[in-house]
Amino acid sequence: MPTKRRLYAGLAATAIVGFTTAALALTVPPASASTLFSEDFEAGAPAGWSTAGGDWSVVEDGSLAYRQSKGTGAAARVLAGEPDWTDYAVRARVRPITVDGGGFAGVAVRASDPATMYRLVLTSAGTAELHAVRGGEVTVLGAAPVAAAIGTFHTLDVRADDDTITGWVDGALIGTGTAEASDRGRLGLVTSLATASFDDISAVTPGEDDPAPGQDGSAPVPTRS
After folding, report:
1. 75 within domain boundaries
2. Among 219, 220, 218, 195, which residue's Cα sits nearest to residue 66?
3. pLDDT at 79 (0 to 100)
4. Neighbours of 6 (CB within 10 A)
């Protein structure tokens, strides 16, 4: 049977270990999302973006914004970032200005070329749609109505996590789905039969302890399982 002296020594050691563990837990910050990309156009037209169609320029729209002003083209794209990006999330403020029937404006992730990507768009029908696009073939992964979809800035978030794609507009879930259109690629701003302004573009990678999208007002990020 242990003596009282040994028992007290054991309890003290246990307390020290517990305190040290707790102190480490308090002093080591959790992993969090890291920024891949950020652009607010206040310095003028961005450099290094790839353009396919449309007429793009920086204009005043409440603040400086990137405007696609050619509404007659069936497709206009600008791509930014790196072609090897995989799991990441993009946020942008988007204001469709004029949108003809069947047209849209929005943002894209994993754009491996102008016709292969995942995109979240505001449409001429007053809805938001989440698309998987492969070689120009479109699969709708989700859709929902959006109040004042045309003429108003809305915050669009689209997230790629493995083969799951999820989209939100103004914090409301539009849809989530599984597709195999592209496993990596750049971020994009996209229009079709539409003119639109884009502002405050950001892309982030996941952190281990990031909250679920929409819970804290921050850009949604892929979560680690």
Report:
1. yes
2. 195
3. 97
4. 10
What backbone phi and psi angles, to 5 degrees, belong to 153?
-70, 130
89 & 116 share domain = yes
- Whether residue 210 is contained in a domain is answered as no
CA-nearest of 115, 219, 217 to 160 is 219
Rg (CA), the chain: 23
Q: The pTM is what? A: 0.80
What whole-number distance in Å separates Cα of residue 204 and Cα of residue 183? 16
Domain count, the chain: 2
Q: Are residues 123 and 43 in the same domain?
A: yes
Chain mean position to CA 101: 26
Q: Note whether 92 and 111 are same-domain residues.
A: yes
* Distance from C-alpha of 148 to C-alpha of 212, rounded to nearest angstrom: 26
On whether both 115 and 181 belong to a single domain, the answer is: yes
Q: Give, in order, the Cα–Cα distances in Å from 52 to each of 78, 91, 116, 182.
A: 6, 21, 13, 19
Q: And the tokens for 67?
A: 């405007």
- Residue 5 main-chain phi, psi, to 5 deg: -65, -45
- Considering the domain architecture, whether residues 107 and 1 belong to the same structural domain is answered as no
pLDDT band at 11 (very low <50, low <70, confident <90, very high): very low
Higher pLDDT, 207 or 31: 207
pLDDT band per the 50, 70, 90 thresholds, residue 139: very high
Q: Are residues 111 and 18 in the same domain?
A: no
